[in-house]
């Protein structure tokens, strides 16, 4: 059997030993790839973090902690962030934002941040508590990762990163592979049939928990609707950055949605753009016609000059000088 290369491009290869399982009673080897974390947007912790790819599907931060403890010893591992968790953080949509009318969400985000910074921080903390109260418990006791997923591991310092990479190269060379999940069986929820049964049970929360979440959601929904109505009322007499005032309908006291004003503005811009393109087409047509006339005029002048030259040659041939 060919030996495993210690590196693959910029990555250090770390073979991991998987013990036999009831579903697959044979030991196997999984390959984890590590390198220094170099994201497109640098962060202050890049120097002491590692980028991992081809993570096992059952990976958790507890599994990675156990793995790095076996490589560099205890006290070096700080945290792990998986690919799906990073995406959820970047594009996270609160259940309240998903259900509150779009117009209210836009108004609150665009015009609801005029308070002082301290007040904003207090409201952000309060809103986080409200969102947590309105969110139902997760229906899964433990996530499963996408095959070949990635993670970023944060270590104590840059020296720990160097030691981890050296330990990976040494393990690959000596063929003493760390065992995946060693000592974590009692620290993470079990998978298999127990995991599926717990999921089925969590899909049906008890009535008290469900009622509490619904009440919290309704309270926040009503408060955000009230805030959006107040902002919309204030914007009736305030022009935006382009000098437009919010369109109203149904009387002076009933402001129309800001999305309608934005849609009308987009239509006006589209009409102006279409008219400009039509005028450009007309100008191009006139330019082509003018160029065509100039070419025809040049051809006519060339033909006249050619006839004159031919007549001069014929006249010169008939000339006989006197003796």
TrEMBL record:
Entry keywords, A to Z: Coiled coil
Keyword Coiled coil: yes
Coiled coil: 258-312
Domain Rrp7 RRM-like N-terminal, residue spans: 11-194
Superkingdom assignment: Eukaryota
Pfam families in alphabetical order: RRM_Rrp7, RRP7
UniProt domain Ribosomal RNA-processing protein 7 C-terminal: residue ranges: 202-321
Keyword tRNA-binding found: no
Region (Disordered): 109-141
Residue ranges with Basic residues bias: 109-118
UniProt record similarity statement: Belongs to the RRP7 family.
Name listed for the protein in its UniProt record: Ribosomal RNA-processing protein 7
Annotated organism of origin: Podospora pseudoanserina
């Amino acid at each position: 059997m060919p030996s495993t290369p210690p590196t693959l491009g910029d990555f250090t290869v770390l073979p991991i030993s998987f013990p036999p399982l009831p579903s697959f009673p044979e030991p196997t080897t999984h390959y984890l790839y590590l390198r220094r974390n170099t994201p497109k947007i640098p962060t202050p912790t890049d120097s002491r973090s590692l980028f991992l790819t081809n993570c096992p599907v059952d990976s958790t931060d507890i599994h990675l902690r156990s793995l790095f403890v076996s490589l560099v010893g205890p006290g070096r591992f700080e945290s792990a962030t998986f690919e799906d968790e990073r995406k959820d953080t970047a594009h996270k949509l609160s259940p309240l934002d998903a259900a509150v009318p779009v117009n209210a969400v836009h108004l609150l985000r665009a015009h609801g941040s005029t308070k002082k910074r301290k007040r904003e921080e207090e409201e952000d903390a309060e809103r986080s508590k409200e969102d947590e109260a309105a969110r139902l418990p997760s229906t899964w006791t433990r996530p499963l990762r996408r095959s070949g997923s990635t993670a970023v591991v944060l270590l104590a310092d840059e020296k720990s990163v160097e030691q981890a990479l050296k330990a990976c190269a040494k393990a690959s060379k000596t063929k003493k592979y760390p065992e995946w999940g060693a000592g974590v069986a009692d620290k993470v929820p079990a998978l298999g049939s127990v995991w599926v049964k717990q999921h089925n049970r969590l899909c049906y929360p008890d009535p008290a928990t469900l009622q509490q979440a619904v009440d919290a959601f309704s309270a926040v929904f009503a408060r955000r609707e009230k805030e959006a109505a107040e902002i919309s009322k204030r914007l009736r007499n305030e022009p935006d950055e382009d000098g437009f005032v919010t369109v109203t309908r149904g009387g002076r006291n009933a402001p129309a949605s800001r999305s309608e004003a934005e849609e009308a503005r987009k239509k006006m811009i589209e009409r102006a753009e279409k008219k400009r393109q039509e005028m450009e087409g007309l100008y191009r047509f006139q330019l082509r016609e003018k160029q065509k006339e100039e070419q025809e005029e040049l051809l006519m002048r060339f033909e006249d000059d050619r006839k004159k030259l031919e007549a001069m040659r014929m006249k010169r041939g008939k000339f006989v000088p006197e003796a």
